[in-house]
Write a structure and sequence with these properties.
Number of strands: 8
Bound molecules: adenosine monophosphate
Order of helices and strands: EHEHHHEHEHEEEHEH
CATH topology: Rossmann fold
Helix content: 40-55%
Shape: globular
CATH architecture: 3-Layer(aba) Sandwich
């Protein structure tokens, strides 16, 4: 089974697609956003840098991201992976390739999920996340509501409106940074011949499309 690097503008359904593939094909879902949120619980200098950058909607310094990522990806239990939120620019993509080839895990495809910016902003106000396992829920899509309001179906923890989802200015800034970097990333992976661009306006269809690619392999 091919590994997957997933990228998309925030709230384009990246987490939902990753979750569905993880459940069906047993991928290890590696989200640098989640890894960093976990790391910031430690109240030291690195924890504070992460908190500051995440709350401001800015990129966390690369050396911090590389450190948490390398620890996770090189773990022997991590076999097939989906990368979510990393790499975010060409500099990170080059470093990512270096790290993956060093440990013999550089067999991957890249999936670029696309959604209009307007639709992304609409989804922001709608999204809820489990504080423990990061499962994503929606307040308006029936199929994505938790069975009990505010409680995660999978682990029973609280389902909340994530702090860095709430600030529209921070979201717009994240979208802008994303587009500034996406063009370079798209080029980088296109040249390597591993890029697949998929319309994710209907997330269910996007999942089916990704499945076709990985099952064809
Ligand atoms: P996400 O959960 O992917 O939306 O990421 C939330 C936040 O974590 C981002 O806005 C950044 O502050 C930080 N972050 C996650 N991944 C990266 C990355 N690859 N490079 C830099 N910062 C990151």
């Amino acid at each position: 089974m091919k590994n997957i690097i997933l990228f998309a503008v925030q709230n384009a359904g990246k987490g939902t697609v990753a979750q569905a593939l993880k459940e069906k094909y047993n991928y290890d879902h590696i989200s640098t956003g989640d890894l960093l949120r976990e790391r910031r619980k430690i109240d030291d200098e690195i924890g504070r840098i992460i908190a500051q950058t995440q709350d401001a909607g800015e990129l966390t310094p690369p050396e911090v991201v590389y450190q948490v990522f390398e620890e996770k990806i090189s773990h022997p239990e991590c076999e097939n992976y989906i990368l979510d939120g990393f790499p975010r620019n060409v500099e990170q993509a080059i470093k990512c390739d270096e790290m993956l080839s060093k440990i013999g895990k550089d067999n991957y495809i890249v999936v670029n999920l696309t959604v209009d910016d307007e639709e992304v902003l609409r989804r922001v106000t709608d999204r809820r996340t489990c504080v423990n396992c990061s499962k994503i829920y929606s307040t308006s899509y029936e199929a994505m509501k938790p069975k009990v309001e505010g409680i995660c179906d999978d682990c029973g923890s609280e389902v909340i409106f994530r702090k860095d989802d709430g600030d529209i200015d921070a979201i717009k800034k994240r979208i802008k940074i994303y587009h500034e970097n996406a063009a370079g990333l798209i080029n980088y992976y296109q040249e390597k011949g591993v890029l697949f661009t998929i319309d994710s306006t209907q997330t269910k269809n996007a999942i089916i499309e990704v499945e076709k690619i990985i099952n064809n392999d």
